[in-house]
Structures
1.
Amino acid sequence: MALATAALHALEEMPLGRATETPRAIRWMDLRLRIEDSIAFVTLDNPPANALSRPMFEAILQLLGYLEADQVRAVVVTGEGPSFSIGADPSGLADVTRDHLRLGHLILQRIEQCRAPWIAALNGHCLGGGLELALACHLRIASSRAKLGLPEVSLGLLPGLGGTHRLPRLAGRAHAHEMILTGRPVKAEEAHAMGLLNAVVPPEDVLPAAERLARRIVAKSPAAVRAAMRCLNPEVDPAGETAEQIEVECFEQLTRMPGVRLTLDAIGRDLGARRG
């Protein structure tokens, strides 16, 4: 924990990365972080297959607090090497407690609630807790060689980090039942057909494709993106408002912004001139 805190303090003292500046980059615990042009690139780095560990989760929790306070407007998370993550190390599963699971749930809920979109760049196999992490992200791009699955049933267990409710929401109950009850992993193209992935790309293009998507988002109005993120995730809204209430509130707030009013007025004048 102390190492992670020290690393974040060092990062805070560096200027925000811009196109003309040197990007900020640090490494601590089992994570690597680079921030460039308001985009955070997070790499899971726990060889050989980026197994999820308690130190990694604790580092991600601290990272979430830092990113929420910084000017980061999109996050890309990927894995080092040929795998995104195989999930928890099977040798340590017998020692997992309720506190461990609660920490994991807290972190994935925080990712879901982020106003900055998280993009999972699945550079390889994405299994167990690794898939549950990817399911908590808002967008997913995968290598054509990747396989996605929740194999816990083969160990006499079940997905313990939200897979039983996030997978049905994204892939539908039928696909989720089959994947969870059989433990069968699916290839990237099949996962894309289910609705789990936004795109499947060649292995060498996974991170570049995720970065292009992040840059397209960052190029838009920050206020509009934050408002859209809130509306797109009404089930995790801390205020407990309905989806309709959230959308109406956000739309009204955006229309009052001076920049939006200027744009709408200009469009109105242009349309009026064309009609005339």
2.
Amino acid sequence: MLRCLDIEADLVADSEEAIAAVARASQQGRPYRLVLMDVQMPGMDGLEATRQLRSSGQDTRALPIIALTANCLTEEVEACRKAGMQAHVAKPIRLSDLAEKLKTYIVLPAECGLASSQDSHSSAADNLDVRRTVFTASVSMAALEDKYLCRKQMLLEQVTEILAQDAAKADWERLLRELHRVAGTAANFGNADFGQLSRELGDLVRATPDPAHRQALLSQAYAQMRKAA
């Protein structure tokens, strides 16, 4: 998911490694801009790891910490905040939910379709940058496939969201952009059927001006899209 958002990330196995990685990055002059902290981990949990990071001098402005938790009860969320975390993302994690939390603290690339607006998050843009993965001509096929899979997941989530909301308020232009992008790349990753469905759905939506009728088309196509995905 982070690759899909063009964010460079380091993965660690437990809390001790997380604390060590943050300290090492700071010493090297390349501090992390944000930590995604799993609350439940073997050994030290994410709450205690966060407390130790805060007590070591990593304040909330320099290092935002977002909790990853399957338990979103009020007590759990409050415990995360008391430990020094700024926000939480519920498991199972959805790409759109993750991006919505991240853009509060870092600037996401505009191409992912989920970037924060310059006006609404100017302070974040002024004070925090993000070390992004650079996709060059020598990038591996596996990395490109990861990016495609993330984009496909983001498209399916967007369709689900539109089906659940007022059709007149849906972001149809964004949906059309994502359908077009997936249609143009799916066949490269052995997913030609999904690409063809995306292309046909894009053409139908574009030719149907009424939002309610567009939503009906999405509803009819959704099961096929899930199967082809």
3.
Amino acid sequence: MRQIALPLMLLLVGCSEESADLPAANDAGGSADTSAADSSAEATDGSGAADTSGSGSGEPEQGIISTESFPLPESLPGGIFIQPRLVCSAPVAGDEPAAGDSICTYTAISACTEPGRDFADYGRCDIVRTQRPYSAQPPVIQSDAADPRLDDPAFQSELAWVTSQVKACACVCCHSSALAPEGPSDWHLEASAIWTDSVSDDGVALLAGLVDSSSFGAYPPEQNFGFERVRTALPSTDPDRMKTFFLEEYLRRGNLESEAAAIPPFGGPLVTQATFEPRACAGSIGVKADGTIRFTGSARYLYLLEIGSANPGVPPNLDTPAGTIWRVDVAEASPAMRGALTYGRVPVGAAQRVPANGPPRALTVGEQVYLYTLADVGLPLTRCIATVAP
């Protein structure tokens, strides 16, 4: 049986609750645009793998592109998802000293800095806001000047703790009037004396962990200063305490916990993309034994996956599904791959993410693989089952 051989020398070793999607008309194929195909581009010799030499937040196993892999553009390109980086800085004036020389924080919407510090001082909100569609949206505030919680020391103590947890995490980049450049996106910390009054009932259910928001992605606590985003939508160093706070608020408003079961998972297109079922590639779209991979349009991400693999999602934990055979990413400042490339050969301006070292495995004629490309994170283009053709 014929296989695709891969010489080692060929390798280069986006704050709202929903994200936009592209039409899925070309999921099964169509006519690939190969007018500017990069399949013959010169390959370079770096690994493109994540650099895990940072400190402070714990080190990533996968899903993080470091500044060493792709230099961060001095001016962030508009309309492009900027992948998370681990950025390190000394404590700002007035903050407690760091345990080490610096505090290292991921620039990701699901990331947090050290408890008691402000994410805005140690992360990069300008990067975070590229990772979700951000727009200003005034909330509906349901406040009452006679609210007894205003004079309840126990409640105020819990509210202060929740507020400090929000400030330590990247959610604050879109949910603070002091930080969001065009104004906050719906609920925000300055909305009222009890800012949680600006959160909708469905939003409170989400923050309480009564609604699935896993499609947004999450870091393991050991890589995120102890913050977990599994049991509640807001990352927390004490998820049970966070859950209790927002569950009590949900019930206080006259809702029943059982009613939250009717709220669909949050994530919009990210949810539908996760459950997408691919069909066979059509026309010229697919994979050939000479290594040619043809796809639709201009892609910043290309995957070949084993049949049955999950659909790629968002970083840090959903963008490299188990079963990924080969993954190529284009640097944010580089033009997208257009129409075609050669298996195992990475164009200039891109990097191989999987495998981390060495060539991808050989493909066998007649073998089926899942071809998945994206115009950007959360914007799928080609999603189809390719049979390796002679």
